[in-house]
What does this fold into?
Amino acid sequence: MSQPAQPSAPALPTVPASRIDFSPEDRRWIAKRIEEVLATGQLTLGRWGSAFEERFAALCGAKHAIAVNSGTAALEIALRALGVAGRDVLVPANTFFATAAAVEHAGGRPVLMDTDPDSFGTAPEELLRRITPNTAGAIVVHIGGLVSRRMPELVAAARSRGLWLVEDAAHAHGSSLGGRAAGTFGIAGAFSFYPTKVMTSGEGGMLVTDDDRIAEEARILRDQGKASFHVNAHTRLGYNWRMSEPHAIIGHRHLERLPAMLAARQRIAALYDAGLADLASLTPLRVPEGGVGNFYKYVAVLRERVDRKALKERLRRDHGVSLSGEVYEEPLQRQPVFAHLATAPLPASEDVCARHVCLPVFASMTEEQAHQVIDALKRTLG
It folds into this structure.
């Protein structure tokens, strides 16, 4: 005789690793303005792109902001304007493919720098150690939206050797140090609006700079190298790096909401800071004194010998918590396409890539969800 079916345990509410947030009001606002630009027929390099640029420049405190179709494009444009062809460019090993790819696409040669475990960025001593007579400049990356406390030293180190500094600020919208916005410490900064970022335009990027020549070059290069949008005379070997008006409208709306979205992320991070303070197996990256973090990622380093894969599986299976993919699971020299860059040991990069996790954080995350993550980590790692 069969046994009666037992009632199943209630399903745990799942805490996703991340989420893109557009409220119903946002969606109505965006749809109305996209309908307007569809009616006008001006779908690129129009008034919404200009408005987005103006507002983003104001956010950063930069003289110029040039909207393009990706953060990768923003980086490559800056590097082309700086003339890296045939020269070495110092690049962190702990970064996304695009940072080094932009150098190669611009005709330069990436030279990898090891990671500063304090910030997951670059230490000034490492930058100085990698310089050769063929070095044109360096790219620094604000991993997870964290501006290193040593950023002013990096700027000074580069300047002392006659090098420029470009910021890959793809993660760092609204982050700052000492009242200075990410993207404005170097000669140029590149931001991404890919859908995973703290704000998005669907696809897109922004180059910010105070340098008039770089800004002029960027506007020419993004539009197929044309001297003017209205004149079919190509003065540079540019590319189609334009941002469309619909993308600019989406970005403009999210930029309006950015302060509130950042405040929401910062509240979740504060709960994590307090709730996980006594968990010895997990050490969060800290925003330095005088800094503001946007918490694109809440990054924490696991104690040695903690099995990251097993931890993530237990959190998902037993507690309904999804950890996002690591910021970067492998350093650049482990990427097959960049194996040729592995010319020197990079032990810190190998270590930080192997031992960190990113806790769930997004603008609509609730306190209950944050406490669920904290409880799950304590039960699993405590």
Notes: Residues 258-381 form a domain with the Aspartate Aminotransferase, domain 1 fold (CATH 3.90.1150.10).
